[in-house]
Design goal:
With 347 residues, the chain is of the alpha/beta class. The chain has 14 helices and 9 strands. It is 45% helix and 16% strand. Helix 2 links the parallel strand 2 and strand 3.
């Protein structure tokens, strides 16, 4: 990698908005693991015109030499902000996006830098991560622990080995991730030039509301699929991040599960992902939708426009093999089948 010694190799970029307390703890944990790497790593926090004490938290860290603070020209939606940060924030050759409620694990930065050195021709690296409640994330961030071993059950991927794959489809088929694991921003490390070359300004401008298209829901993933989908990609089996759980589930999550994950499966099919993996994704998607309908049925009847309800019913009828039933019969037969899928033990 040819680069100036004054230019960092890796930008760790963190968009934030009105979560000063969460950000304060996150920065403390990040500083503990980032400082040993000196000018190899920079940390960029993008403050999306917060109205709470976010700026005070950032000012309190002003002596941290690796830290840069940026601000978009105006307040952006969450998806717009992610796209803007990827496009504008990083000075380094590579960028690692993460949320202000996430935490880089001890050894995580070293694992990413080692992968970038081992795979110099790769533009995109998928880094494994673990999931844990925010209380665990906060405890780790404020401690001086030099190691953390997450349980196998908490990992996004319990399979595969660190290495490269010929394309994104091969990575999807061999990394053992679930359909939802790919949607988190914490796992994506990308060459900044790839993001810049995608010319995403128009996508940013179109992102007027959350979750109304798959691009507005998973902009980072759609961008990388479109730009890096057919190129060699890297994978880091060692968990590099802790995804904090408990703050990020939006009220429209049932809608996202029902529609956007379905579209994501179609994207993977277009990439050439094999039938076995797509079938596993389909089953997982169906179970998630079934769980929501069984336990939170009220959201379904609030969907607007009405065609969204029919579209969901149609997709589920097809997935369940009940396409010959009427809507009334579906509630009698398809709903019972859903309960069977939801309670079916894993293979």
């Amino acid at each position: 990698m040819n680069r100036s010694l004054s230019v960092p190799l890796l930008t760790i970029a963190m968009p934030t908005y009105n979560r000063a307390g969460v950000l304060s703890i996150g920065l403390k944990g990040l500083r503990n693991v980032a400082e040993p790497f000196g000018n190899q790593v920079e940390v960029v926090v993008s403050n999306n015109h917060s109205t709470d004490k976010t700026q005070q938290v950032l000012d309190a860290n002003s002596e941290w030499s690796q830290l840069r603070v940026v601000r978009p020209p105006k307040h952006l939606t969450g998806t717009q902000h992610i796209l803007w940060v990827g496009q504008n924030a990083g000075l380094a050759e590579f960028c690692w996006l993460m949320g202000d409620d996430d935490l880089v694990l001890p050894g995580g930065i070293a694992a990413v830098l080692e992968a970038l050195a081992r795979f110099p021709k790769v533009d995109y690296v998928l880094a494994n991560y673990a999931c844990a409640p925010m209380a665990i994330r906060d405890a780790l961030a404020t401690s001086k622990r030099t190691a953390y071993v997450p349980s196998d059950q908490s990992l996004a991927s319990g399979e595969g080995q660190t290495g490269t794959f010929p394309n994104l489809a091969a990575l999807v088929e061999n990394s053992g991730w679930t359909i939802e694991s790919y949607t988190a921003i914490v796992g994506h490390v990308f060459r900044c030039k790839v993001w810049h070359d995608a010319r995403i300004e128009a996508v940013v401008e179109r992102a007027k509301s959350h979750f109304d298209t798959i691009e507005n829901t998973f902009p980072h993933l759609m961008m990388l699929i479109s730009v890096a989908g057919e190129k060699p990609v890297g994978f880091i089996r060692e968990p590099c991040m802790l995804l904090g759980q408990g703050l990020q589930t939006p009220r429209s999550w049932p809608f996202i599960v029902a529609f956007r994950l379905r579209e994501l499966i179609d994207c993977y099919a277009n990439l050439g992902v094999g039938r076995v993996q797509l079938s596993a994704f389909e089953t997982a998607w169906l179970k998630r939708v079934g769980e929501i309908l069984l336990h939170e049925p009220k959201w379904f009847f609030k969907l607007r426009p009405i065609r969204d309800r029919r579209g969901l019913l149609s997709s589920m009828l097809v997935a369940l093999g009940t396409r010959n039933y009427s809507t009334t019969q579906w509630f009698a037969v398809g709903f019972r089948r859903l309960r069977t899928v939801v309670t079916r033990p894993p293979l």
